[in-house]
Task: inverse folding
């Protein structure tokens, strides 16, 4: 099979283009997130800000080990993106809360994502986008089935 017709190769190429676009965006240049800390983590905490989120929730959501999560959260705390606050009924548990700085970054990231999505969807109908997303989800399902 030629590379041009290889699904994985082309998805990887697309992923590389998206990664480069993110890295050169004004938001990425402005916020300069440390390695290991990314907008996905900030987005997760933002979307769940009304809930009590703990490290184990973060570990489960991103399928990462405790040590990895601990390092990411430690870096985020050092950079002023989160605070860990003790819970009233159990001082050992620390709820993760975004700072105002991180909320502003999240808003900038969401604007950047919206802009990128608009550029990527240019020239495609809603039906084409739906078909593409359906195929991507089926690819993922097929690979997950073999991963079990």
Result:
């Amino acid at each position: 099979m030629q590379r041009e017709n290889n699904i994985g190769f082309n998805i990887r190429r697309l992923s590389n283009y998206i990664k480069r676009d993110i890295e050169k965006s004004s938001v990425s240049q402005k916020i300069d997130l440390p390695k290991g800390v990314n907008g996905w983590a900030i987005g997760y905490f933002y979307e769940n800000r009304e809930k009590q989120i703990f490290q184990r929730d973060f570990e489960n959501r991103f399928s990462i080990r405790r040590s990895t999560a601990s390092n990411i959260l430690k870096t985020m705390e050092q950079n002023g993106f989160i605070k860990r606050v003790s819970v009233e009924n159990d001082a050992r548990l620390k709820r993760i809360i975004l700072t105002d700085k991180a909320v502003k970054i999240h808003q900038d990231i969401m604007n950047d994502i919206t802009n990128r999505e608009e550029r990527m969807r240019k020239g495609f109908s809603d039906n084409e986008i739906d078909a593409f997303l359906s195929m991507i989800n089926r690819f993922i399902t097929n690979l997950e089935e073999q991963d079990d």
The helical segments are 7-24, 26-31, 39-47, 55-62, 66-78, 100-121, 126-147.
